[in-house]
Design brief:
This protein has about 575 residues and is an alpha+beta fold. It contains 14 helices and 26 strands. The protein starts with a helix and ends in a 6-residue tail after the last helix.
Length: about 575
């Protein structure tokens, strides 16, 4: 009976096909049934190099890592979880969820909810080793690590555990162990790179740190060679994952800068074709609203420190920005994003001014222009925005006599160009400060959860060529021909300051907290390659391992993006089981 159940469960696992959220799916591929479904010849070796900054590893490019790349999907531009300290990043690896869920933020590996008086239930996310033991108790697993305390906290269910004081001892033991091991999964921890960084600095110019990377590269080579030396290797399907859990900066791990977050990830299999993820990164400030009631309303926002900047004092103007919708609400319309508008009902457009609105269901971002008398327009970008994707948007305004031309662009493409006739004395100017989100006194309480980055305001109508060029730039350099025409430039990546010295900074409205979110991948107008969008992280290990071992994981709260599915044509054809 047990054998029958095993066949049924494994058959389900073999037939399941997980969706991919990054690439278009290839034609359906179904693995052939084999005579003995109880036998799974796939194996995983996960080697984690603590504290290895991805871009520094790439600069050093030690020989054994370099040799892996010819048969790997890889990145040196990956990111760790938001909390980059040692304990938190290892917890994210073990549990397959970000720190916002597991809430382990310190070296005691205890869950910290942030409120000692809270009576809320403590979140519990077991490790992927526990999950595997739960569904496949006959699968053998092992860990070979430096940190016994961490292993006890995160991988206590693993029976086959080995601990050593140095990386050399870890490598020597694992080399011999792998040659005859029957384990489906082995995890190896190498810590000397982190030790070198903490002692003398996480820097590519620090000889001690780069020497540690070279030494660890030799240990990685030992383990790869041990796998290939197995007598049964030709009949097995090995996925070798080599990665780091976090980077480092100065003498510390746990920082919020890019070097502290930057990791590398290598997914190696002998039939993989080389594929490098080189993500473009963009980060911004998050603005949100919840509820539609004046008595139950939460929003954050900022406004300029004066009320005159960004009036259209001349005859030309351009506003461009990057926007990413974290949520798309089905029944919300005309949600104020930013602009120069008075605190009245924006739908009635009863004040002079200009501002940007979001429409419901991701149908578009709209622009309102009003001179209160002869000109009132509500016109939108024809290209809908997509949840979780950065889009570059721009509008230009140019007045010639009584004719106003308004052109709108989405991701570098001209969407519309329309002329309006206005009164000779028409003006868009008002005394309201430039705002991102309205404050509590505004009477539109629509839900919103949006990130903004790179708001750039010019005192001229940029050309189509200018807009196309800017849609490719995640930061506008001072060398750009249009830079001198900027009157306001708010990158919004780390603060709310204006890069243009003559323009106002932005200050907080209300008491709702302001926040800057971690960088995410972005495809630009110039470069739409999906490799620029996909950011490999330290929480990808759990779903990757379960995918490779043909185990389902949809109910665990892990990421559902299957990184290897688009490449199944490369490796399924010769899969032994």
């Amino acid at each position: 009976m047990k054998n029958l159940l095993n066949k049924i469960f494994l058959g389900i696992g073999l037939l399941s096909v997980l969706s991919c959220t990054v690439f278009d799916d290839p034609a359906p591929i179904f693995e052939e049934e084999v005579s003995s479904l109880e036998i799974n010849k796939r194996r995983v070796l996960l080697i984690n190099v603590d504290g290895a900054v991805g871009e520094i590893v790439q600069e050093v490019m030690p020989p054994r890592i370099a040799a892996l790349l010819a048969n790997s999907k890889y990145t040196f531009g990956g990111l760790s979880d938001a909390n980059t300290n040692y304990a938190s990043t290892w917890a994210s690896i073990a549990k397959g969820v970000p720190v916002s869920k597991h809430q382990i933020t310190s070296d005691d590996f205890a869950v910290h909810t942030g409120d000692d008086e809270s009576h809320e239930s403590i979140p519990y996310f077991p490790s992927f080793m526990y999950r595997l033991e739960e569904i496949k108790p006959h699968y053998k697993t092992s860990i070979v690590m430096r940190d016994e305390n961490m292993a006890k906290e995160l991988f206590n269910e693993v029976e086959n555990r080995h601990f050593f004081a140095t990386d050399a001892e870890v490598a020597d033991y694992t080399e011999n162990y792998l040659k005859t091991s029957k384990d489906m999964l082995t995890i190896v921890q190498l810590s000397s790179v982190m030790e070198a960084g903490r002692a003398t600095g996480f820097s590519g110019t620090n000889g001690d740190y780069t020497a540690a990377i070279q030494t660890v590269d030799g240990y990685i080579g030992q383990l790869v060679d041990a796998v290939k030396a197995r007598e049964t290797y030709a009949d097995e399907e090995w996925l070798i994952i080599v990665q780091s859990n976090n980077g480092g900066s100065g003498l510390e791990t746990g920082g919020g800068d890019f070097e502290s977050k930057n990791i590398f990830v290598i997914l190696n299999h002998p039939r993989f074709q080389p594929y490098e993820y080189v993500p473009h990164y963009l980060s911004g400030a998050r603005f949100y609203k919840t509820s539609r009631s004046r008595t139950d309303y939460d929003a954050n926002g900022v406004e300029a420190t004066n009320s005159t900047s960004y009036n259209m004092t001349g005859d030309e103007m351009t506003v461009e920005f990057f926007l990413k919708a974290n949520e798309i609400y089905e029944s919300v319309s005309n949600t104020f994003v930013f602009g120069k508008a008075g605190i009245t009902n924006q739908n009635n457009k009863t004040d002079e001014g200009w501002f940007i609105l979001q429409r419901s269901k991701g149908t578009g971002v709209y622009v309102v222009m009003s001179d209160k008398t002869s000109l009132t327009t509500l016109d939108g970008f024809a290209t809908p925005y997509t949840k979780g994707k950065w889009d570059h948007m721009a509008m230009t305004i140019k007045k010639t006599g009584t004719t106003v031309n308004r052109s709108m662009y989405s991701n570098g493409v001209l969407i519309s160009s329309t002329d309006f006739t206005v009164a000779a004395n028409a003006t868009l100017n008002n005394t309201a400060p430039f705002r991102i989100q309205h404050g509590l006194e505004h009477n539109s309480f629509h839900n919103q959860d949006t990130e903004l980055s790179e708001i750039r305001i010019f005192n001229k109508a940029l050309t189509r060529a200018d807009i196309e060029r800017h849609a490719c730039l995640l930061e506008l350099p001072e060398s750009d021909p249009s830079y001198a025409d900027l009157t306001g430039y708010y990158p919004l990546k780390e603060d709310f300051n204006n890069r243009i010295a003559t323009g106002p900074n932005l200050v907080q409205m209300g008491t709702a907290p302001l926040e800057h979110l971690p960088a995410t991948g972005v495809a630009t107008f110039c470069d739409t390659d999906p490799r620029k969008v996909t950011v490999l992280t330290n929480i990808d290990a759990a779903p990757l391992i379960f995918y490779w071992l043909r185990q389902r994981y949809e109910t665990y709260g892990w990421s559902t993006a299957d990184l290897l599915k688009p490449f199944e044509l490369e490796f399924l054809g010769g899969d032994n089981n």
